[in-house]
Design a protein that fits this description.
Layout: E1 3-8, H1 11-23, E2 29-32, E3 43-48, H2 52-61, E4 66-73, E5 76-79
């Protein structure tokens, strides 16, 4: 499974989207983020990259703005466009 990470503005947004995704049975988990990619919240969600569209759709539906998306590859965060 290729893992992706979504960053949000606040821990409130992270907890809100985690709850929404769990209700929809979409895998996600809250993880701490390295300081070099997150200066604000410090937490994000990791998810299966195949679910990227579902994650962005659910975030949009519930007004939870994703600030950045990263692909996690060999322990490194690669910014996605």
């Amino acid at each position: 499974m290729k893992k992706c990470v979504a960053l949000f503005k606040s821990i409130h947004d992270v907890l809100k989207i985690e709850e929404i995704l769990q209700k929809e049975s979409i895998y996600c988990d809250i993880i701490p983020l390295p300081r070099d990619i997150s200066k604000s919240c410090g937490m994000g969600i990791v998810f299966n990259c195949n679910d990227r569209e579902k994650i962005t759709d659910k975030s949009g539906e519930h007004n939870v703005e994703i600030q950045h998306l990263y692909r996690l590859h060999e322990g490194q965060f690669q910014l996605m466009t």
